[in-house]
Design a protein that fits this description.
The protein is an alpha+beta fold and about 475 residues long. It is about 50% helix and about 10% strand.
């Protein structure tokens, strides 16, 4: 259903500065979409004649051609504002690389008495590391201020860098607000995949896609842009494929309601062969008497069956997709729920809330499982203090339950894969205790130790970060 917007009347004109604010523009678009969804249903209903007097009257109340002009202007402003943010992010990170002192402190190699701290360390490697950490520190500082992740900030700065360098013609259209954000992302991905030293390929690709970047819808644009990339890329496809195959991988993304999504990247021939095999199994299962599952459900259950007790398990017990899988489970159960006084869900480590029946089923079939009783009000666990530097296993469990992910702002890396870092260093008198340990992933641990970021603890025990520019960001509370 198309959505039209009512005209911004003359009374709104004095608020031009407000309309130039992309946050306000997005909020306005969302509000008008809600209004349109409520008022336009009658127009597009199957039983309403669009040429009837009633429909014509409703159209009349929606405004005139000025509506379209207003929408066009708002969209262009919002697009241009997003690109301006990308350019600003890129500028700040570029300056951080050139002048890292603000983010990581004075250059130690300028001291005449400086000595390497690591084997093979040189002045060149130290300064390169400082530049890298300064960029990451600056990106994280921006991120906590605008509620993004540092990766998203760097990604948006990367967009500006790639487009301004490799696709100047498309970049000019982007700055003018002519290109949708979807088409910008597509262009960046394809342009960045071209050889770093082949400026002729960049120019050929830029010339080709600039002709339709502002006019083609994302789906059509992606098809045409990929074809343009293939024409611009002078290295044979066979050689590129052999190199790209090294990037094959599998990962899991958590979804809502106890679900998750499995994604696989690999050679197209192998992926299509797997897909065809799953389709054959699903087609066979569909012929079984009494089968009521949809084709999509059959395909999913066929895949589950292949990795449990074989495809035959799918037909035996379609309601138990985890049949045959023996998991290691860490489930956190609120104490009131355990006592039957609350219906709060359990938490499956790495995914989030799950229903209690599922938690019990997983626990019953697991080799090992850990039950943690959380405080019904604060969600905290028992404090443990140790006098040794090495973190004992029971304390590791407590810390990783208290902090399910990396403690750095916005980072979602599971704490099981993070370092357990002493907030106050052991050498400075810090203890190996729950109050002095936090999980920090390999990407953010050096930012805490080697830049001007600081991790602090107030009188109430609350942990918080302070950025190099003085912005305070509290650690996210646990999800239970």
């Amino acid at each position: 259903m198309e959505v039209r917007f009512r005209s911004t009347s003359a009374e709104v004109d004095p608020l031009a500065e407000l309309w130039a604010d992309p946050v306000f523009a997005r909020a306005y678009v969302a509000a008008e979409n809600a209004w349109a969804a409520e008022h336009l249903d009658a127009v597009w209903a199957d039983d309403v004649d669009p040429d009837s007097p009633d429909a014509a009257a409703l159209y009349e109340t929606m405004g005139d051609e000025q509506d379209i002009l207003d929408v066009h202007a708002i969209v262009h402003r919002a697009r241009a504002a997003v690109v301006a943010q990308d350019a600003l992010f890129h500028s700040i990170l570029t300056r951080a690389a050139v002048e890292p002192e603000r983010w990581v402190g004075p250059d130690p190699t300028l001291d005449p008495l400086w000595q390497p701290r690591r084997e093979g360390e040189t002045v060149t490697t130290v300064r390169a590391r400082r530049r890298n950490l300064a960029v990451r520190s600056a990106a994280a500082d921006i991120a906590v201020r605008v509620s993004l992740t540092d990766h998203q900030v760097r990604d948006r700065a990367h967009r500006a860098a790639v487009l301004s360098c490799r696709c100047p013609r498309v970049w000019g259209l982007c700055v003018a607000g002519e290109v949708s954000e979807q088409n910008i992302r597509i262009t960046v991905d394809l342009a960045a995949s071209l050889p770093d030293d082949d400026t002729a390929s960049w120019a050929a690709f830029d010339d080709a896609v600039s002709g339709f970047a502002a006019t083609a819808a994302p789906g059509r644009f992606r098809t045409r842009a990929r074809a343009a990339r293939e024409r611009a890329y002078r290295e044979p496809l066979q050689e590129r494929h052999a190199r790209a195959a090294d990037g094959r991988c599998v990962w899991v993304d958590p979804l809502l309601d106890g679900m998750a999504q499995l994604s696989v990247i690999g050679p197209a021939a192998d992926i299509h062969a797997i897909d065809a095999h799953i389709d054959d199994l699903a087609t066979h299962l569909a012929t079984v008497d009494g089968e009521t599952r949809t084709k999509a459900q059959l395909r999913a259950d066929a895949l589950f069956g292949l990795f449990s007790q074989g495809a035959h398990a799918v037909a035996k017990d379609p309601d138990s997709p985890s049949s045959g899988i023996v998991p290691t489970v860490r489930v956190t159960i609120p104490v009131l729920t355990l006592m039957g006084h609350s219906d709060e869900p359990a938490t499956l480590d790495g995914f989030g809330p799950i229903d209690l029946d599922t938690a019990k089923t997983l626990a019953a079939t697991a080799d090992t499982w850990i039950r943690v009783l959380t405080h019904p009000v604060t969600g905290t666990v028992m404090d443990v203090d140790r006098k040794a530097y090495k973190v004992p296993e029971d304390l590791k469990r407590l810390i990783r339950i208290q902090y399910p992910t990396c403690a750095f702002p916005g980072c979602q890396r599971p704490s099981d894969t993070c370092d357990l870092d002493h907030r106050i260093r052991w050498a400075d008198g810090g203890t190996t205790s729950r109050d002095n340990l936090t999980p920090e992933c390999p990407a953010h641990h050096p930012i805490k130790d080697e830049t001007r970021w600081g991790l602090h603890r107030d009188d109430t025990g609350r942990m918080y970060w302070v950025t190099p520019t003085g912005y305070r960001s509290d650690i996210d509370p646990p999800p239970f």
